[in-house]
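Table S2 (continued). Query chain:
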Amino acid sequence: MKSRISFFNSGLCRSLLRRNWPVWTSYFVLLLIMVPGDMMQIVERSARYEQSADYLFRQLNRTMLSAGVNVAILSFFVCVLVAMAMFGYMYNNRSCSMYNSLPIKRETVFSTAFLTGLVPMLIADVIIALICLALFSSQGLEAKNVWLYLSMSLMGNIAFYGMAAFCSVLTGHILILPAVYVILNVAAALAEAGIFTARDTIVYGYAGAYHLQPLSPIVQLAENLNLQTDWVRNADGGMVESGVYTVEGYEWLIIYCIAGLVLAALAVLIYRRRHMESCGDVVAISILKPIFRYCMCFGVALMFAYVVYNAIFSSYLSALPEAGCYLALMLAGAFMGYFAAEMLMQKTLRVFRGKWKGFIVSSLIIIAFVGINEFDLTGYEKRLPEADNIEKVYLSYHEGCEYEEPENIEKLLEFHRLIIDQKAVNESAYVDGRQHVGIIYTMKDGSEFSRNYFISYETEQKRDSGSCVNALAKVVNLQEAIDKRAATEVPVTEHVIVDASLEGRRLNDAGEFEWFSLPLTAAQAAQFYNECIVPDAAEGKLCRLFPVNTEEYYTQVSSVSFHFGLYYEDLSMREWGKTYKSFTMYLDAPRCCEWIEKNTDIELISMGEVDPEGMEHDLYRYGSTDMPTAEAVVYY
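Corresponding output:
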């Protein structure tokens, strides 16, 4: 008679439960505090403050679903502890020999430990859900939200416990298990961030995007698994929660749950061929040792270079010295990572003889990576999109602005070419003498082409009419940009304006400058905006920006600003939107100056009068006579 194949042994299960019951008890108690305990406090507060039944209903259901999100994330920490308890026998020679000497198949031992660790957690989740349903359903807690909570907690446990079980067979040391587990969950995101940072440091204008984060489960869930609230308008016109909640990122939990089961199945297959003598080894699977070595090598290279460079050298280096320093730091990190991995695997410090070949190959790869990026062998730094394929351009300076007119798109391209041509000047600028500028092209096919730059703001560049900083002054003051800075999300009427005022500095009776704030009524603010701000801006007399403080800045820009808030209904979001606008007054804006003169006692004063030392510093001390004129800086 053939023996029956079993994947579960009850005797072994009872032994594991008897020795490790505090682990699941602690998890259950923690859930009691987090879920029904928290909801009990909500009910007590509601009764104490006599809150409405509708409010209590919304609070309970939102808290139930929020608890599901939190428990799914909590599973990341709990599951590795349970795995260390269940699979701890693999990391001790005596225990491993004893377990493998039992008249039980190896896969039965592993699957029994796996199920014994997982099932009590799932039972705890179910009990907590039933407790909440029994205690709070009469208070308005909906059963569907309880089941949604339960599904999130169950899938979180399955996902992360499967990953922890998989990691347990990869190492022979119990202290390495949590390290491998964490690395599995964050490696892809960290590696991509390290490469991104290296390229951002070395490549001029680099603006990469992140794509590998989904391969880092805990990072993806922490950022994407959340609860969204639906809002409705009440009889008073305000916005309140509707009681309808949506869990975003739920599909990722499903994917990671399936991945956890797949990894658990792979762990069984690996365990069947795992050598008992690997107890105490950092890497228990021979084929994984080269992978561990090179992951340590390149991972430490990226992280060490990032940390040390930004802590010490980022404020002093640029261009080729910057790339050389980053290369040296990456090679130093690679050396540490490569030979640290060897020491861990060999369990000795004597690892330098006969182990240099792999490190040399790794170093050549790092040198090639830095060289290709620094000398732009891919053409990345000089690449520009075709003007005919561009739909619009976004320039991130000040508040940022989009350009859609074809002639302005061409001017943005010319500005972009100038930045590329003046790479050497811009890269050599000291840190405090740089200004960040981002350019994002939206193509007609929906794709995007983006670059990020630091351009020089040093004195010589400010005095050079052909510099990037003065070219920036031109593109940010194109009329299309001025019009968009003057525009608001909704038409400005007295019914949507709040908190309007004129603020700034003025001379008091003692001849000293003092700060003032003059409130305006909603009607005054609406009139001032529609009859003065809009037409003056349409003539280019307002909303100008001054990357370089020219003579025009000190003589035409005043110390007074107009501020107001807009409180309006956002129909797309079914809630109230609120935004603030601010406009600096200019002495050459005729309508604004006339309105202020007629309706207030404010005397507009130029920035040159308010800050004569600053004007002297900018216009004379650094040779402002060579600076471009206002017409050359501001207009085409």
